Amino acid sequence: MKSMPMKKKRGDKTGYLMSLPYILYFCLFIGFPLIFSFILVFHKWNIVTPMQWVGLKNFYRLFHDVQFFVSIRNTLVFLVIHIPLQITIALLLAILLNQKIKLKGFFRALYFLPVIVSGVVITILWQQLFAYETGLLNLLLTKIGLSKIPWLIDSNWAMPSIAIMATWKNVGLYIVLFLVGLQGIPRYLYEAAEIDGARPVQQFFHITLPALNNTMVLVVILSTIGGFSLFIEPFVMTGGGPMNSTLSAMLYIYNQAFYFGHMGYAATLGFFFAFIILLVVLLQKKFVERKD
Length: 292
Hints:
Layout (H helix, E strand, L loop, with lengths): L2 H38 L2 E2 L7 E2 L3 H7 L2 H32 L6 H13 L2 H11 L6 H8 L14 H26 L3 H9 L4 H12 L1 H16 L3 H6 L11 H11 L3 H26 L4
Antiparallel strand pairs: 1-2
């Protein structure tokens, strides 16, 4: 009877020891940066000189910073193009890969391959493809008698071009998620629909889409968070140009922190931007998710 409490205490200590590495990781790489960033919000600091208390001046500067709201607008334009394009392509390819076709495993791995390749490498590759004079895409267009497209040098084409590249880079991940959802739909639902005379299009809208609702919510949320994190593509391909048309919010925050040395203001932008992301994700979840 007396040995039971001792075993319980030993078990408690073992649990704490097992969770200690993650606790240390959380404190060092998540907790401390968050607290330090929150302190920076109320200070002016350029890394070299000591921090200076500025109170709410960073917030005042934020709400009068036209360039920051331009970068948010650019990010939203990217999301409006990227998310529908990515979801449509991923869902269609997932439906095709869910059929009985040859080399199914090969094609699944092939579509997922860009996800694991370095984003910088893919961005440089697509930068060469989008080149106005020597790019492969424009060479193909001229071969068939069409005019060249200023993919990255025209403000109207630059952000859609980046959205196309980002879709190609990330679509493999969402194909896998949709495949998991499709394989969880009972086959007898389609068999019953076929007996009732439902066509494939009717089956898609009345069985497949409703059954994929939870997967769709996950895909939309992950796509949104990933889209708001747009940084590597404009940083490498356009530098935010032309005429700031591809200046994303993350790139603008990066420039404020590491190019201009405004660490306190960059921290303020980061917290405000995180609040915008949270708000957009909650609204998406409310409108996309179905209770039934």
